[in-house]
Each structure stands twice: as C-alpha cells, then as structure tokens.
Write a structure and sequence with these properties.
Elements lengths: L2 E6 L7 H14 L4 E5 L7 H4 L9 H5 L10 E3 L4 E3 L16 H8 L5 E5 L6 H9 L2 E6 L3 H16 L3 E10 L8 H8 L3 E6 L2 H9 L3 H4 L4 H26 L17 E2 L3
Parallel strand pairs: 1-5, 1-6, 2-4, 2-5, 3-9, 6-7, 7-8
Antiparallel strand pairs: 3-4
Helix pairs in contact: 1-10, 4-5
C-alpha cells in the first residue's frame, strides 16, 4: 500500500506545483512508482508545467463519474505517472470534491507514492485534498505573509487529524529581509524538510516544460529537491519497516501497467 501526500500552501505563488512535480520525479528516479495528481481543479497547472495542457480524460471526468480513474492516468517520458485536471471552465461543473479521498485510496493501491498538488488557500477544494492525504507537506516562502498562511494551513490540517510531515521553504535567497529558517521553524512548529534556493534553472525548466531535476539535474534547486525526496522516501521506508516489525502485512506493489496511451512530454 502506498502513501498519499498533499503538497499545500496557504498562499498562492510559492512554488507548490513546482515542488509537487520535482519531488515526484525525484522519487521516481529512485525506482519507485509515483503518481502526481493535479488536485487543483479550479486553476490546474500540472499539465501546463509538463507541456501537455489538454488530454482527453482528466480528474474532472473521474470526479463527475464520467470516467474511471485508470483512464485519466498518463505517463511522462520519465516514467512518472500524472493524473491531470482540465483547463476547461465547463468541466468544473458537477464535480464532487468528496470523491477525492476515495480516488486517492485507489491510487495508493497501485503506486508507492501519490502526490496531490492542492489548490492554494484554505477553501473546500484544499480541505478535500487534506482529507485525501496521509501526510501533509507545507510549501512556503521566507516571507511573513506566506509563513503566516502556512501556519493557518498547518492548524487546519491538524484539526482534521492529518499528520504534517514538515515544511519546504522555497525561493530562498538568504537576504536580510527574509525570515530566518530558525524563525520559520519556531513559528510553524514543524520540521523544515529542506530549502529550495532561488534558482533561474527553475524558470528555465518551466519554459522547457519539464521538471528541473530532469532539465538541470546539477542545479542547486534540483539537488535540493532530490535531498528532500530522499528524506521523504526514507520516512516511508522506516514506516514500512516499523509496520513489518509489528507483524502488519504489507503487500508490495508491482510496476504500474504502462497502458495509458499518450505520454506527457512526447511530441
């Protein structure tokens, strides 16, 4: 059985989608099965970031009971699986957000790691993603407004009974006007999983429409994402070991069947 992580922030524009993609791709590079889900149905960006904004079947169709979840999964050329949402305004209708937890439950049966790229803010759409997750990963910038919104998100997640794995601080420059990492940690009261430096390689990877760990594997940002991904994978490995020690049966999942048509990133 896999693990579902929600990548979330209280504030938009902090690098949530970029983080979801690069964490997912990094763990996939370790030989793990990964599915990245665009759970931001209002303003989806995963497809845009990966160069395939329009696909025939999306999460919207699944949540409107118009398709099975397997029909909406696509494979990037890296091997990472992606479940995109639709850019169409008309397909925002008839969406039942309460379905996301059951969809996530299906996905964790066929993948080692499932990353939900949540909508920004603290509305019902974001809360449905939190409910669907086993672990919460907070994305923030070293700015007081972003950290304050991150704190609100943490409190909501904890009130909903979800474990907050930690926070990732993105776009870090080490300038005097930024909050220090110690101050951020003290304010959020959760571990800092890692720091992503401000790096032009991230913007360049977005122009190329791929993950920075693929386009600029030696960049500072790529190395930082890989380091955080290793921590997440290590926690997952330890949790599996602990469960085995407790004599709880864990069934290893095989590789996901590569039957999902059109590939992201292929021309």
């Amino acid at each position: 059985m896999g693990k579902v992580y929600v990548i979330i922030s209280g504030k938009g524009g902090v690098g949530k989608t970029t983080s979801a993609i690069n964490l997912g791709f990094s763990i996939n590079e370790m030989g793990k099965e990964v599915i990245i889900v665009d759970a931001n149905l209002t303003t989806p960006n995963i497809g845009l970031h990966l160069g395939s904004p329009i696909v025939p079947v999306t999460l919207n169709h699944v949540m409107a009971n118009e398709a099975e979840v397997e029909e909406a999964i696509y494979e990037h050329e890296s091997g990472t699986k992606v479940l995109p949402s639709s850019l169409s305004i008309s397909e925002m209708d008839n969406i039942n957000h309460d379905m996301l937890p059951s969809i996530a439950k299906k996905l964790k049966k066929i993948s080692d790691h499932v990353f939900l790229d949540s909508s920004a803010g603290l509305g019902e759409e974001a809360k449905s993603a939190i409910r669907a997750a086993d672990e919460v990963i907070i994305i923030t910038n070293p700015e007081i407004s972003a950290v304050t919104d991150a704190l609100k998100t943490i409190k909501i997640a904890e009130d909903m009974g979800r474990h907050v794995l930690g926070a990732i601080v993105t776009r870090h420059e080490g300038e005097k006007w930024e909050m220090t990492l110690d101050a951020i940690k003290d304010m959020l009261e959760v571990p800092i999983l890692g720091v992503i430096p401000e790096d032009v390689s991230v913007k360049e990877s977005q122009r190329i429409k791929n993950a920075v760990v693929i386009t600029h594997p030696k960049s500072k940002a790529a190395r930082a994402y890989r380091s955080i991904a290793e921590k997440i994978a290590a926690v997952r490995k330890k949790q599996k070991k602990d469960r085995k020690d407790e004599k709880i049966e864990i069934k290893e999942q095989g590789f996901f069947r590569r039957i999902f048509g059109k590939l992201f990133g292929k021309k």
